[in-house]
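We store sequence, tokenised fold; for instance:
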Amino acid sequence: MNMHSVLLYGCAVAVIVSGIQLLARLATKDCEEMSPPLALLRAWRQPLPRAATGLVATMVVLGVAQTAAPAMIDALERHPHGAWWRAVTALMVQSSGWFQLLFNLAALAVVAPLAERQFGSWRTLLVFTASGVTAQAVSMAGWSLQGGGDSVAICGLVGALSTWYAARGSVVALRRVALVIPAAGLVLCLLTNNHGLGLLVGSALGVGLATPARPPLAV
């Protein structure tokens, strides 16, 4: 295994480990008697997070559609010298098969409602779209000419939550841990991995979202 792979997998582990700690804290902060899995399910309680519901439902429908009609992947994913609109449509298909499809759906179902409870509906959609489209556009420019998936947009939501918590979180040790996520995003960008750009764009937006605003939905 070369150094590029070591750094790539190391960053992935760092984001996953610190991200799990952050999401678990956000899920349990007002219901600490619950286990994190139950608290994560509680994020789907009423009032139902509308943006998260819409995102998950859309990705489920698109996942079924691409399974029934595999040609849809080629029609929407990034292509070398592809049209600009593919930076948007590449978020709608999962080009690496069943594992990517199921993993991304599960990740979105966990991250999106927690992001919406913190940021509100339109801000969650803004972070998801801006992070995802930016990462796809840069990929089309040379980082990764062909492919598709919404994991870069999910990374944006995780990045936004990390810098938001680093600025406003109540647990000092976890605030420091949260900063591992944008740091890993920077390393991934140096490795020209598009997930790093998703993390950094989301992290930058999270700094802005950490400024005082209207109270979000209760977690």
